[in-house]
Amino acid sequence: MEDSFTIKYVFKFEDNFEQVFQIDIDEESLQIKPPEYQPQDWTKLENHQCKECPLTDSDHKYCPAAVAVQPMVDAFGNDQSFEEVEVTVTVPERRYRKKTYLQEGARSMLGILMPVSVCPVLAP
Length: 124
Prior knowledge:
about 25% strand; 2 helices
């Protein structure tokens, strides 16, 4: 992807296991780079489509927001939200680090993923 920037999240658990997420965003459109993984069935648009969603399943098989968060759901699906982690967020200009709970770090990453997910409702 040309003219993009990357936001990197590293979640370091107490056992020193690290979970790394890289979010590549197009600078012009401010949309996330299309995923290189196969979306799972639960991300299909037909599953609990938002009432306000203007997308049709004939044009979009998958919900863009669900596809964007799928890696996070896969990674943290069996973890406890109150687990202590060290979260490091790296953006082009700087790096942030905080010892916190998994839910707070995940919420921060959701705050990035949702609006850049190509979802027409969340994008504005």
